[in-house]
Amino acid sequence: MRLTCEVIKASALSDLDLGLWRAMCQATDLFRSPLLSPEWTQAVASVRDDVHVAVFRRMGKVIGFLPHHRRPHRFARPAGAPFADYSALITFPNPGIDGRQALKMAGIDRFQAIGLVDPHNVFGESGGEADTAYGIDLSFDETTNNVTRKHRKNINRHRRNMIEMHGDVGFILTDRDRSHYDQMMRLKREQIERNGLHDFLAPPWATDLFERLYNAPETGLHGSLLTMTIGGTPVMFHYGLRLRDRMHPWVSSYDPTFGVFSPGSIFLTDCQAVLKENGVSYYDLSTGQSHYKDSFSNTAYDVRHTRIYGASSSARFGAGLANVAIRVQGAMGGRVADAVTRLNRRFDQIACLELDFVSRARGVAYAFAAAPRRLRTSQGAD
Question: What local confidence, expressed as pLDDT, does residue 143 receive?
């Protein structure tokens, strides 16, 4: 049965294509993230001109979609990277398609997958780094989590002390107060600066994307701000995507004045009621900080961060060189290999965000200059 591939701009997707894509996401629970929706791909395409979709057809019938940033030298990243915490070849179950062959047909030699979701095993053994994605499933009458009894007692104590000193805890969803949005951004950028990280909120396309999503109608994909207040004063924020009953926060920031009360723990414990009241059935905490997220989640699944090579001869050659580099890195020893891995991740994030040579060079220079601050942070000094 003949398989074909057409690579098109996201804006060229037909209504039929969009409907099929949405149906594929609804048919497989792991595809229901807003980040895997066609709405997300089109939102990114509104601020960047390198967003494409590989549309795969068998005998003329669409069987899959691969949204991506099409970069030079047959290289691709997930649409919206690095904000795209998940990536996937979107299909119905049992698609009968080989992922690497699909990349070849799409003219992609290397696909830098972030949080690869592959429930239908189209990519098989993809290598790379295993990770866990966490979430809070709010579809139950009573939501449980993994917070220990001792931890819960500490959270309750902090909450009581905070209320006694500053007033009651409250939540706002979706918070449309522009001053709260600006405060959330300011606090996050101050934290980024303190920790010596690359400012992922600064690139013009990222700023534009966040603004457009914040101003988008709540009837579709939009930026949703969840604010925790203490005595009416906003002190902690989660901002990210919402599409229908799914919410995926990206930015978490808080007023450090309240840090002594562990506001993050209070936030994740107390926010569930307002989420449910506002029709959210799944609050996606994504990957990273597993020691923290594991406590407050009640569901988790495996993903991978990996570079997938296509089936072309040039891709196989690239995969061979990459395997040599991995072996050399492994021979360096654990600590050196870990340092190289962290450095590669940092450079890749800069490449995701900065779209021209000058901006990337500045980002790399800053990464080296800010290394002492990052080291102090990792050692608990900040």
Answer: 72
